[in-house]
Specification:
The protein is an alpha/beta fold and 280 residues long. It contains 12 helices and 7 strands. Helix content is 47%, strand content 13%.
């Protein structure tokens, strides 16, 4: 795997393309989750647009409280004006039904709020953190972005996750090695109704596991069972902690805790649902 310096050398022209695209907007509102990608987009936008780059974060039961505070901290670190609004995707029965297109309805609500805020702020563009690698994933939310006229400057500059992490490190962003995040609804199998109680149960379980030292993992909701997926490099350590992990998951309200023998990887629930080919 290329080192960080190699990745930066190989993608320097693409970083220039990213900056040029963001600069050309004249002013942009960034859909800002506080994740690796949107934080880097915000950092570049602040660099080339100054105060004409504004961050917007939405809050709902599908976003862990810890991530909300992280977004606030990162926006302060970058000196960005940070708007925070409540989103109401949970009011949409199509979202609650949790079909394979759930993200389309969630992102539709997000980009509606972004468009309204951008109009109020007099900003011509809305930018998101969709990167070049995301094209190969099941991302119905990107369809909502396209319909809303949202720009994805990372993908347009052909910058993938590895390049974003490498440049984030060069920019001094603490997110450069942050584990990949996703909304809490992604922990529920497709077809299981999304409810605030189920989201809160998953949030409690994951907060307890994070307190035990795990970094890259998921707690999947299966009724009475909380199934823990842990990244490959942490799986051996997680097995050694299995008693504490079980207690943490049961403490969140699950009757049973299971530690998956296969490691966590992004898109695994989509693989199980047959939406993506299974990777080994």
């Amino acid at each position: 795997m290329p080192g960080l310096d190699d990745l930066r050398r190989a993608s320097a022209d693409r970083l220039d393309r990213l900056k040029a695209a963001v600069r050309a907007s004249g002013g942009a509102l960034i859909a800002f989750s506080g994740g690796v990608d949107s934080t880097f987009v915000l950092a570049v936008a602040r660099e080339v647009l100054g105060d004409r780059a504004v961050a917007l974060t939405t809050h709902s039961p599908s976003v862990p409280a810890s991530e909300r505070e992280e977004a606030r901290r990162l926006a302060r670190l970058l000196g960005a004006r940070h708007l925070e609004v409540e989103s109401h995707e949970g009011d949409d029965p199509r979202y609650r039904a949790n079909g394979s297109d759930r993200c389309y309805f969630c992102k539709g609500e997000l980009y509606r709020l972004c468009a309204e805020a951008a109009s109020r702020e007099g900003l011509a563009a809305v930018l998101d953190g969709f990167n070049a690698d995301d094209r190969s994933d099941h991302r119905p939310g990107h369809r909502a972005a396209a319909e809303a006229g949202v720009s994805s400057p990372l993908a347009e500059a052909d910058l993938g996750k590895a390049e974003v992490r490498a440049w984030s490190q060069a920019y001094g962003l603490p997110t450069w090695e942050k584990p990949q995040m996703a909304c809490l609804a992604s922990r529920l199998p497709f077809g299981v109704e999304v409810t605030p109680a189920r989201l809160a149960q998953v949030e409690r379980a994951e907060a307890a596991l994070r307190a035990l030292g795990l970094r890259s993992f998921r707690v999947r909701w299966h009724g009475d069972v909380g199934r823990i997926e842990v990244a490959a490099d942490e799986l051996e350590g997680a097995f050694a902690l299995r008693a504490a992990l079980a207690a943490a998951v049961k403490g969140a309200g699950f009757k049973l805790a299971a530690l998956d023998l296969e490691p966590f990887r992004s898109g695994r629930m989509s693989e199980i649902a047959g939406l993506l080919p299974v990777r080994r």
